Amino acid sequence: MKYTVGQYLATRLAQLGLNHVFAVAGDYNLTLLDEMAKVEDLEQVYCCNELNCGFAGEGYARSRVMGASVVTFSVGAFSAFNAVGGAFAENLPLLLISGAPNNNDYGSGHILHHTMGYSDYRYQMDMAKQITCEAVSVAHADEAPCLIDHAIRSALRNRKPAYIEISCNVANQPCTEPGPISSITNSLISDDESLKAAAKACLDALEKAKSPVVIIGGKIRSAGCAVSKKVAELTKKLGCAVATMAQAKGLSPEEEAEYVGTFWGEISSPGVEELVRESDCRIYIGAVFNDYSTVGWTCKLVGENDILISSHHTRVGQKEFSGVYLKDFIPVLTSCVKKNTTSLDQFKAKKIPVKQVPVADGKAPLTTVELCRQIQGAINKDTTIYLETGDSWFHGMHFKLPNGARVESEMQWGHIGWSIPSMFGYAVSEPNRRNIIMVGDGSFQLTAQEVCQMIRRNIPIIIILINNSGYTIEVKIHDGPYNRIKNWDYAGLINVFNAEDGKGLGLKAKNGAELEKAMQTALAHKDGPTLIEVDIDAQDCSPDLVVWGKKVAKANGRAPRKFQT
Ligand SMILES: C/C(NCc1cnc(C)nc1N)=C(/S)[C@H](O)COP(=O)(O)OP(=O)(O)O
Ligand SMILES: [Mg+2]
């Protein structure tokens, strides 16, 4: 088979197991899309705009080894960059592919459309370099294979986005045939000596420790399900208490005896903060300590005997071991650690009562407590629930997850509206899961258009739209008129997106009885999305958000650093 540059790129993606690539057309990428379409098994999925296209690729990367999004030069890529920044912050390998000017124009002095209006077009590459682990420009067919392979390999190895721009007159030029994909997927191997030394240091630390606990952070999400399984084997072997940080909700099997809940400072699950504070050896795996995860820097609990295991290095007490990859190190530890159930025994001894949530009066105005009680009832082992930035984060921490259920969030980047396009991309990859989104009215208004693509592809996603009249998180951090938004008829919007042939459902629920009915309808509705607009009083929010909002506001409000003379 004769390959062109576009076919080479598409073949690499198909070889990696991608069956879809997301795109928005533009005259700089049309020939590229034509060439990519010639490769079997790589369906093009079109989005409403490039921000959503980027987030759809990011969502796909939460289910597959990578996601890919194709946009046009400048006017497309600039929008997609926000999603690429999010993928970088969330450690997800998203490949952003942009059409680019005809290679005859470089150095020609030509002013081109869709550009900044001057004849140097390198600005896009310069921007891409800031938000990806690798950025390449393909302006000649003969260098295309090497550049494409390098960008994809870098994204996979670093679990970060990469960028490829391809001149519009090069995409259909002949190039060499791709070789084995193993040249790209072969991952880096840990340094053997460091691996052994890190394991020994861990064993020595654990030998001395009375009550080690494991705290799992969000960085293991991007390491993939296989690593999450390896971490679960380690925690089972250790037998100590296991907590997840907020960003890692769903990344540890919650039905296991060792699982004690969420560690999130003073808004942790009952008894967990004390357990972590009292431990004399905290084993953090993939932890991210930022102002939100430490509740405004009030719970960054890292002591001198603690162990911090990250994607490619480990710190044991005061010793550092780089070149130790999580995927290699966890199984080594599992093979040699001894059981120490002290912290779990201490936790169980507290006999923390399990909170029962009473069924609300079906006719009473809906509350977040009743809403979450009913969402809990819809979560099974095949459920993936997306928690959008907003009060949904805090409610989501209280869901009890059966093993196999997954939670996706974007707690590092926190771009409101992310959940709609990202879940769309995720669901294109996993249409048979029970896909649920918990999203606020403010967030929904940024990316609502992508619901029409869920309708177009008949994907049964359940969208719980919490209409609480504005930006409640922001209200709890710092209120003002800017936190009020124009109300929409959110449920009615589905008819707009359906037009003449769509099968989306838009339902409203003002009380528990209406919600019960709507949830049953949504769970039974299989040939399109169901949006359930729930009316919630603007003052009704998670008590955890109130506590957290005050602490974050305090951290934001620290007095300016004095000018050092
Ligand atoms: C405005 C903003 N954050 C600032 C912000 C502004 N712009 C972008 C792209 N991302 C952001 N996080 C946030 S969290 C709103 O409270 C979200 O409102 P909503 O979706 O309605 O959720 P809640 O009512 O539960 O807060
Ligand atoms: Mg809101």
Describe the protein.
This protein is an alpha/beta fold and 565 residues long. Helix content is 38%, strand content 18%. The protein is built from 22 helices and 21 strands. Helix 3 packs parallel to helix 4 (77-89) and helix 3 packs across helix 16 (419-429). 54% of the residues are buried. It binds the ligand C/C(NCc1cnc(C)nc1N)=C(/S)[C@H](O)COP(=O)(O)OP(=O)(O)O and magnesium ion. Magnesium ion binds at residues 390, 440-442, 468, 470-472.
Structural class computed from helices and strand pairing = alpha/beta
- Biggest sheet: strands side by side, in what order? 11-10-9-12-13-14-15
Total helical segments: 22
Shape: globular
Distance between the termini: 68 Å
Major sheet description? 7 strands, mixed
Number of strands: 21
Distinct ligands: the ligand C/C(NCc1cnc(C)nc1N)=C(/S)[C@H](O)COP(=O)(O)OP(=O)(O)O, magnesium ion
Helix content: 25-40%
Q: Can you tell me the residue ranges where pLDDT is under 50 for at least 5 consecutive residues?
A: none
CA-atom Rg in angstroms: 24 Å
Q: Report the sheet-strand fraction.
A: 15-25%
Chain-averaged pLDDT: 97
Q: How are the secondary structure elements laid out?
A:
Blueprint: E1 3-4, H1 5-15, E2 20-23, H2 30-37, E3 43-46, H3 50-61, E4 67-71, H4 77-89, E5 94-100, H5 123-131, E6 134-138, H6 144-158, E7 162-167, E8 174-175, H7 182-185, H8 192-208, E9 212-216, H9 219-223, H10 225-238, E10 241-245, E11 259-263, H11 272-278, E12 281-285, E13 307-309, E14 313-316, E15 319-322, H12 326-336, H13 342-349, H14 368-378, E16 383-387, H15 391-396, E17 406-409, H16 419-429, E18 434-440, H17 441-447, H18 451-456, E19 462-467, H19 472-477, H20 490-498, E20 505-509, H21 512-524, E21 530-535, H22 543-556
Parallel strand pairs: 2-3, 2-4, 4-5, 5-7, 6-7, 9-10, 9-12, 10-11, 12-13, 16-17, 16-18, 18-19, 19-21, 20-21
Antiparallel strand pairs: 1-8, 13-14, 14-15
Helix pairs in contact: 1-2, 1-6, 3-4, 3-16, 8-12, 10-12, 14-21
This protein binds ligand DPX and magnesium ion.
